[in-house]
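quick one before i forget lol
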Amino acid sequence: MAGAHGPVAPEEIALALTLADTAGAIVRKYFRAPIAVDDKPDRTPVTIADREAERAMRRLIADAFPAHGIIGEEEGREREDADSVWVLDPIDGTKNFISGIPIFGTLIALVRNGRPALGVIDQPVLGERWLGVAGAATTLNGKPVRTRACAALAQATLYATSPDMFAGADAAAFQRLKAQVKLARFGADCYAYAQLAAGFIDLVVECDLKPYDFAALVPVIEGAGGAIVDWRGEALQIRSDGRVIACGDPRLIAPAKAALTSG
């Protein structure tokens, strides 16, 4: 059933919250604890916390909705062509996590026919949880949040996870945009998008993201009044190329896209 939340059923929302609770308990157990850090083939770090949290979430999904697909950062893909697919990143911001810095989050999305319909950004150490559902207002710990107005790049605060994520033409494009904003900062991973939804950041621009990096962000930002698209200005889908423009004020999309593509 679709319920009052558009394409998302109440029991799916309940499961998403249970997934966040379960992952959060595991992540908190290992935060600022002496744990081993392994390097994945792409040289990004992974820990027992990432793996254990994702496995726990996958078990819950399989029990509740065995026909649904799952795409996870650490444990791969199952039934990815299903109409309903859960997309999981147990710790988005593992580099901060292993550094003892509580600026990371668990990302949980439900993608319906390729389009993100539900998203959770959960910060288990700070006790902050953003929930976005298609057709409903985004909430932070149960209370509605809204993006802030900012129509001009010259007044905007811009975030990206790292300048190192941009290379070649993408690096030049980002520098053109960065030169036009009021303030540019780095290092917040998914937490920057959460603060954009809460009205404290105006613009997040990144590239080379995977579905588990961006799927959960879409309903959260859109439900708070913002916009999130690819660098061509097109809606994000599960197969988007990983270049993302997120704006608290949708009026920023056009000038941001122009800056990125003017080279």
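fyi Residues 1-6 have pLDDT under 50 and may be disordered.
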